[in-house]
Amino acid sequence: MKDQALATQGADPVLLPQTGLRASARRIFALVRRYIYLLRSSGIRLIELIYWPFLQMLTWGFLQKYLATTTSQVAQAAGVLIGGVLLWDILFRTKIGFSTTFIEEMWSRNLGNLLTSPLRPFELVGALSLWSVIRLLVSMIPVAIAAYFIFGFNLLGLGLPLVAFFAVLVLTSWSLGLLSAGVILRYGLGAEELAWSLAFLLLPLCCVYYPVSVLPEWLQWVALALPPTHVFEGMRSILLHHVFDATELWRALALNAIYLVIGYLAFSYFLQSARVNGSLLQLGE
Amino acid sequence: MTEPQTANTPSVSVAPVLVRDLVKVYGKVTAVDHISFMLEPGTTVALLGGNGAGKTTTIAMLLGLVVPTSGEVRVFGADISKDRKQVAHRMNFQSPYVDLPMRLTVRQNLTVYAGLFGVANAVERIDYVAENLQITALLDRPTGKLSAGQKTRVGLAKAFLNAPELLLLDEPTASLDPDTADWIREKLRDYATRRHATLLLASHNMTEVERLADRVILLHAGRIIEDGAPSELIESYERETLEEVFLDVVRGRSSRDDAGDRLPPSLLVEETS
Does A6 fall in a domain? Predict the structure, then answer.
């Protein structure tokens, strides 16, 4: 049996500086690399990323096509439904990307290794956020291209506001992802249903497929307190009236700032609570 | 010996581990009950005790995974509850109860952790550690396809990546066959000697402890019952092996009294965690 000495001969580790932005970025990219490896290891995961948004786009695209031949002018307005579904998928897929990636760490019992490494909680959040956007792009770019060729709907036709819509939806999904991850950290995988259901709670309230005015008045206040509502209202305004109201988007971004702070504080609170309660890691006993 | 030593030992502020009056209470259960100890550089210390003695909770507090109810944990002088980031790169950890992601290959896992620990020469270091732990042939295999013994070696490779000055091990040879377990112990002994690293291992494997540890901290119901070199404890209890000492302790026999004597009632509480 070959028996060399560890650590004192040959390739002693050269440790890079552990503090500062560069060190944080390095740790974030190290973790993102782990998620890239994971995606690369499974073709089924990659296909699944595109499969569901593609099916959804097809369903709503054909519905839009049918309505265009039979019903009102509003329904005929090109892309209201298919635009809604594509933007909703930005929110939903980013949220699911954030949460399921976190749950993956718990499923694989890797969280103990991560949290005993130099990785800091905000870097873990940074890696999950970055990865959720990468996943989204892998998922949505082919579907948006397919929507153009199948239904003639050009998502880029929304113009520059699309960038703002994208930012608002992604920021909201991170807030929701932080909240779900915190609850799962504290209460374990039994709470993972929350990761799936939380985004769906927003579906009726954010007025993805209908205007806010459809809701009862008291519920309109709730809807307007949610950043994505302003995105869907803005999208309809562009597609139906060719008008873009930037004030709505500033409101949405301001609301997002509040929700992100709340999300991060909730995540930090639940992480600390898990450390106090010993639920962070069952090391064996 | 439950209080940290100060004479003929390194400064308390730079000791690899300093634990003072540490308590952890979960609800009504006291898992760790006012324990204090200090680890000196280059020593291998075993936390020995039965199930629920508080070994794992103690290690989890040293790692910052569990927050103490009261008391103090310092690692290389840093308060681990507040300043873990200052010292995290100087320590590492391995446990059979924590896995590396199964779908990733061994090399991918080690590459990710080399990045997290900031190992600049990751490729060379991974090759070197892999060669030493005889896992080179496994580097491109999915971690989930490995046997228990292979996974343990991979876990150790991850723990050695940054050549830690402090290595915390929870049951390092659990579920391994005797030959592999013996080989792992030899590796740990060799590492500690050459790196002058401090090793703290939680175990209830007496052979392992006798073979590896310079010092044993015997825990029962969250308290330190004995603290000393294995040979001292064996002598003190007038026994042949550490296992007999352990049985004396968990069955409530005091060391320096007659074998039939019992510990004070306060130490005979139910196991707590």
Answer: no
Chain B residue with minimal CA distance to A6?
B191
User: Does some domain include residue A117?
Assistant: yes
B139-194 pLDDT per residue, tens: 999 999 999 889 999 999 999 999 999 999 998 888 788 888 899 999 999 999 99
CA separation for the pair B253, B261 (Å, rounded): 5
Q: Is there a contact between B9 and B40 (Cβ–Cβ < 8 Å)?
A: yes
CA distances from B83 to A27, A115, B90, B265 (A): 18, 14, 13, 38
Query: A277 vs chain B: nearest CA distance in angstroms?
Result: 7
Residues from chain A that touch B273, judged by Cβ atoms under 8 A, are 285
Q: HSE on the CB side for A118, CA within 13 Å?
A: 31
* Interface contact A109-B98, CB threshold 8 A: yes
Tell me which residue range forms the domain holding A41.
Answer: 26-277
The domain over range B12-258 is classified in CATH as 3.40.50.300: yes
- Tell me if A133 is assigned to some domain: yes
A208: tokens are 């993805």
State the Rg of chain A over Cα.
Answer: 22
Q: Which letter does DSSP use for residue A16 in this model?
A: P
Distance from CA of A262 to the nearest CA of B (A): 22
B92 pairs with which residues across the strands? Answer: B167
Test the A interface: residue of B55, B111, B117 with most A CBs within 10 Å? B117
CA distance A241 to chain B (A): 50
pTM for this prediction: 0.86
Q: Which of B64, B95, B183 lies at the smallest CB-CB distance from A284?
A: B95
